[in-house]
Amino acid sequence: MNNASHEIRLTADIPDDSYPAELANYPVIHTQPIHWGEMDAFNHLNNVVFYRYAESARIAYLQTLGMFDGSMVTVLAQSSCQYLRPVVYPDTLLLGVRCQRLGTTSIVIEYSYYSCAQQAVVAIAEAVIVRLESDGKTKLPWTIEERARLLALEQKVGHTPEL
Q1: Environment class of residue 58 by beta-carbon count within 10 Å: exposed (0-12), middle (13-18) or buried (19+)?
Q2: What are residue 46's phi and psi, to 5 degrees?
Q3: For the residues of 22-45, what is the DSSP string, one character each?
Q4: Which of 90, 122, 92, 68 is nearest to 4 (CA)?
């Protein structure tokens, strides 16, 4: 990953006026430039690209929590995206990422896609991730320490996930 074009920021570590108010309660902000080749036939950002961006943002969130070091097995159980406005090149999206709900073995991640060019949220999405044993078949609960780290990160921006 090229760190010059893909940046992860912790909202709580940024001065309040450095990010859009719409993302203030998202602890992780993933910066994603739009590339010309990601446009569809109508010259809009292709819908499948939103899912790729969500994947990158989700990994950034898990890395921030120290939960994406190669030792943890997770599976994407569900994913959805609601497109609010078309996105066109050139632009940069800021993806706010937060935990909407923390289950015993799952987590619902919420995304807000903010267009720097439009100065507006252009899409919202969510994904359900399930943690598994190393065999990839049996669900594995989040540890007390992992839950505490996640809740502390969310609390930094005044957000409390549903438990």
Answers
A1: buried
A2: -60, 140
A3: GGTT-SEEEEEE--GGGB-TTSSB
A4: 92
How much is the average pLDDT of 5-24?
65
Q: Which residues contact 30 (CB under 8 A, 6 or more apart)?
A: 6, 7, 8, 53, 56, 57, 60, 61, 94, 95, 97
Q: What's the half-sphere exposure (Cβ side, CA atoms, 13 Å) at 116?
A: 15
pLDDT in tens, 27-53: 999 999 999 999 999 999 999 999 999
Q: Angle at CA 159, nearest 5°, toward 156 and 161?
A: 120
Q: What pLDDT, on a 0 to 100 scale, did the predictor assign at position 135?
A: 86
Letter for the amino acid at 124?
A: I
pTM of the complete model? 0.89
